[in-house]
Design brief:
With about 290 residues, the protein is an all-alpha fold. Helix content is about 70%, strand content about 0%.
Length: about 290
């Protein structure tokens, strides 16, 4: 028979897996955008929040439930990301990364400010779909169905994205377009359109994570503000631009953070950054990163 402390340990492991799911999805979107477009997208947290709000609007004003919002919100917010790339970000393509970081940081402040002005700082409830309510009795703990769904669905999306980028012809074209756009353009491929759609896809991943997080964390204008700092640390640890590194590091650091909350709660807010500092001292390009 498991004692109470063991139940608490498994509960923290579950919390770590859920947080790791969000870290993995968000860092995956960042890695796609940076690895294929060389844009440091600091607006990612605000776009994560927009995904949650989009789902809330679809439910409240259009009567579209969770499953419809899960499909539509990434498309809608991804389209907004395409608008941002076409009107602003593509102008910085040949400039230093710092310009893109400053622009997206400013966009994040504007987007968060607009939503906070209209909706305040308090959270708006977003219901769990009826199919995913309840929990499973595992003997040593109760596993909420919705949280299990979040973990499984995140794993499927992350590795499907990795497979599409690393193992398919489309992914090969995307990588080639970032390394030698003139050559790819010579084969009749519209490289600017490919780059724009890739940015929209990365933004869509952030919005997808926002929809998944809405029933757990409620819908708040600043729900992505603190999360994005940790996600950037995840991307740095995994290696900037490394798709597989972002996925594995996101889940691993979520679990490490959860375990730290159990064994030494005072360090739970800093353990990710301590690991980042150690990794950068040992391997400056990240665990899965390649030298420039």
């Amino acid at each position: 028979m498991f004692n109470i402390s063991t139940q608490a340990l498994f509960a923290q492991l579950l919390v770590g897996l859920i947080n790791g799911s969000f870290y993995a999805l968000l860092s995956l979107g960042l890695a796609v955008i940076f690895g294929l477009l060389n844009i440091i997208n600091f607006a990612h947290g605000a776009l994560f929040m927009m995904g949650a709000f989009c789902a809330y609007f679809l439910l409240t004003y259009a009567g579209i439930g969770y499953w419809g919002a899960l499909a539509l919100s990434p498309i809608i917010v991804g389209a907004f990301g395409i608008f941002l790339e076409r009107t602003m970000l593509h102008r910085l393509a040949n400039l230093d990364h710092l310009y893109g970081l400053l622009l997206t940081f400013g966009l994040a402040l504007i987007i968060q400010g607009v939503f906070q002005n209209f909706f305040g700082s308090s959270g708006l409830p977003y219901a769990i779909p009826p199919q995913l309510t309840g929990a499973q009795n595992l003997g040593f703990m109760f596993l909420p169905n919705y949280r299990a769904w979040v973990v499984v669905f995140s794993i499927v999306v992350c590795f499907a994205t990795w497979f599409a980028i690393e193992k398919t012809q489309l992914g090969a074209l995307l990588r080639a377009a970032t390394e030698n756009p003139a050559l790819v353009r010579a084969f009749g491929i519209n490289v600017p359109r490919m780059i724009t759609l890739t940015y929209g896809f990365g933004v869509g991943l952030a919005a997808l994570a926002g929809v998944l997080a809405a029933p757990i964390n409620q819908v708040r204008p600043l729900m992505g503000e603190n999360l994005i700092i940790v996600v950037f640390a995840v991307v740095v640890i995994g290696g900037m631009g490394s798709i597989l590194g972002s996925i594995l590091t996101g889940f691993a650091l979520g679990i490490v953070e959860g375990m730290t909350k159990y064994f030494y709660p005072e360090a739970s807010n800093t353990v990710v950054f301590v690991i980042m500092a150690i990794v950068l001292m040992v391997k400056p390009n990240g665990l899965f990163g390649r030298a420039s």
